[in-house]
Amino acid sequence: MKICIIGSGMMGSALAFPARENGNEVVLVGTPLDREIIFECKKTNQHLKFDRVFPQGIEYYQFEEWKQAVVGADFIICGVSSFGVDWFLENVLVEKECSVPVLSVTKGLVDLPDGTLISYPEYWERKLAERNVSREICAIGGPCTSYELVYHDQTEVAFCGKNKKTLEMMKKALATSYYHISLTNDVVGLESAVALKNGYALGIALTIGLCERENGVDCGLHYNSQAGAFYQATREMKKLLQMQGATENCECIGFGDLYVTVYGGRTRKIGILLGRGISYDDAVAMLNGVTLESLVVAKRVARAIKIRASRGEVQLKDFPLLMHVDGVICEGKDAQLPWESFTFEDIME
Amino acid sequence: MKICIIGSGMMGSALAFPARENGNEVVLVGTPLDREIIFECKKTNQHLKFDRVFPQGIEYYQFEEWKQAVVGADFIICGVSSFGVDWFLENVLVEKECSVPVLSVTKGLVDLPDGTLISYPEYWERKLAERNVSREICAIGGPCTSYELVYHDQTEVAFCGKNKKTLEMMKKALATSYYHISLTNDVVGLESAVALKNGYALGIALTIGLCERENGVDCGLHYNSQAGAFYQATREMKKLLQMQGATENCECIGFGDLYVTVYGGRTRKIGILLGRGISYDDAVAMLNGVTLESLVVAKRVARAIKIRASRGEVQLKDFPLLMHVDGVICEGKDAQLPWESFTFEDIME
User: Fold this and answer.
1) Which of A263, A264, A242 is CA-nearest to residue A251?
2) What does pTM read for this prediction?
3) Which residues in chain B come in under a pLDDT of 70?
4) Could you give the ipTM of this predicted complex?
């Protein structure tokens, strides 16, 4: 098979490893933001952010050449971040050259004015329908950090989409001895599970910083409080996912993704800084002003839940951790968690 | 109130902190195995395994004096390990001095010959009923390591029992600014959730050792594989807990407990050793021959599931991680996880 990856960020690029190691023809196309990465890949066969070289035989293209690169591809992998969703729509999805199925790694949800949360595949399909364009868009969810995939760490993910044959074709192309792929038709469930985990991972990471504030920065990790927040996160995720109609398998993918997100990357870092008592603006500045996708998702979900609560469809008291995280990142609230609000009383007289 | 703790292991002793800090009268009674601990407590007001002294005013007793120590107590906390369950039955529960309610910290399940898994409170109640003795037995479950409780780390737990008033009395006695207590009538659900997590925590810890085997002992932590095993653990725990009739709140307490168990204590240590490829016997020897409660529970649950599978009530293929852990600890199977068996296909034509 031939696979065309568009977007050479870390996750899109990491998928070139199983794709190429499986013997497929692989082309990696940068977006206009990826110029330097593609330039470097052409020169050294290595991504600037990975410490392993790519498998031999991958071809690299700048975005101007994408229509030439995509010729003959069996499917396209969309590797843009959530900030590139509209760019990908306008520059790739609407074009006639993008007629093969798309597999998206972009994680996130879009909240509509009525509090409905839709996945990016659905968002794109709605926008394309307005232009009478039809595309088959699948997506990847699950606990997978790109640099560990590159390292051939054992990884479990799921692909979601509407069409069995397409999903099976994509699985066949990418499944390796270390990349294990489940398949599901539950697009909104999978995409919700892996998007929702963001705000909750931040909430759990707050407890690490809070312990440091209490006991000093070198106090070591305190797992009781992390686990207490993890427990509450799973309670709230279950409720939200039931609202979204998610299957139990997708719920569990979300729990695995929550676990990995507490340990990897920038969501953890900003959570620890906020937990220490550093203000949101200062924390973002300390992380070089990077806007975090995970915080955008957390805000969108909180906004949607508040709208639904105002209509009496849900109760905000069922989501104390989400509301707390929203308060910390949007209103400068102190990070100390509302622990007692995480307790329940399931008892009868 | 007056609280009598019998069993001065780490968890029983740790509960003396919130109990006493709340202003209750607290007596801590050692079992015959705890002689040295009580001796040391009397001398220094500190437990041998804790780095903080007890709050002032706790009284310490050797087991011979327990009938004198318990006079006037509002409830008894049972602090014995699962290996002391029958000892506690014969030496405390059957005695007329043990007439007040009991709150047990002992974690585990007992498998009956037909594959039914019952909680320790139910086990004790059955044994006592044979002697026409009636006791009110409640239990604690949830993500709580003793040394972090001593450290006043924020902690979320649940108390289970049949009687609302008793549970509320126990919560009032022990709830502090750092010990947060949910209440539930779902005894078998809570006790199953916190027992089941043991085998699964071992399964997740195997991945840490496996990564070390692959990449060297100083390779750092690989979270993709931990998270992949965590995802599968939650899938199997959900199925088992649904079989046990557990509530969703207890399920989430179990997920929090799974999280904390991957990080704390001996289950993690033996999992890492087994993952590295060290044999079960050698790994146990390296941990000074300590028999691990968690492994006993894992074996019992696996045995029960096999019996139920032989009757066609469940399918073993739904529990590949549990069966794998059982194979590693009982049959010397290699630790490499059956990753592909963790995938699902929820797709229609």
Assistant:
1) A242
2) 0.96
3) 289-291
4) 0.96
